[in-house]
Amino acid sequence: MEADRETQRPDEQPVSDQTGPPQPGEDLDELKKENEALKKAYEDLNERHLRLAADFENFRKRTNRQTKEIREFALEKFAVDLLDVADNFERALKADDASLREGLERIQKQFTGIMERYGIRHFECINSEFNPEKHEAVACIPSNHPESTIVEEFTRGYCMHDRVIRHARVAVSQGKK
Q1: Cα 110 to Cα 153: distance, rounded to the nearest angstrom
Q2: pLDDT surpassing 90 at residue 91
Q3: How many CA atoms lie within 13 A of 59 on its CB side?
Q4: Percentage of the chain surpassing pLDDT 70?
Q5: pLDDT score of 85 more than 60
Q6: How far apart are CA 64 and CA 128, in angstroms?
Q7: Cys bridge to 143: 59, 85, 153, 173, which one at CB 3.0-4.6 A?
Q8: How far apart are CA 37 and CA 53, in angstroms?
């Protein structure tokens, strides 16, 4: 032992005083408990993950189903309103010639009112500058109007809430030739 003290460095402690690896049975029970706790935490997290994944999948399916229903029935009220117009056309066709024009004018007014309720309106084109975002040129004709001015409208253009849903089909002036 005397020899051990002589070879021992001052910053080292004797071997018997140092803590070594756990002795069998000492910390084994504690490690088993910790392992069980970690396994339980893993199972809880895994179960939570699986539930969240299932909830998300159900949410996705429900949202897709609702979106499909909204698309299918979005125009239902509009279509029902148009049925009144169809009924009035049938009545006008059965009417005598004297009241036919008056009936058709009333139907047109009713139809225009329905479209305006849904944000659909026509836009004026005649004597305005050609705009490819709103107009479709189907003819270019010589006229006294400046070049690129719309001189004739073949089909009306329509907007729905400031978005063009149908371009106006127009004839554009080529200028004097």
Answers
A1: 23
A2: no
A3: 6
A4: 85
A5: yes
A6: 44
A7: 173
A8: 24
Contact at 8 Å (CB) between 166 and 158? yes
Q: Can you tell me whether residue 115 is helix, strand or coil?
A: helix
Element (H, E) at 151: strand 150-155
Q: Give the three-state DSSP class for 94.
A: helix
Cα radius of gyration (the chain): 42
Minimum mean pLDDT range among 33-37, 84-88, 160-164 = 84-88
For residue 135, list its beta bridge partners. 168
Domains of the chain plus CATH, in order, are 120-177 (2.30.22.10)
Q: 94 near 105, Cβ under 8 Å?
A: no
Is pLDDT at 41 greater than 80 in this prediction?
Answer: yes
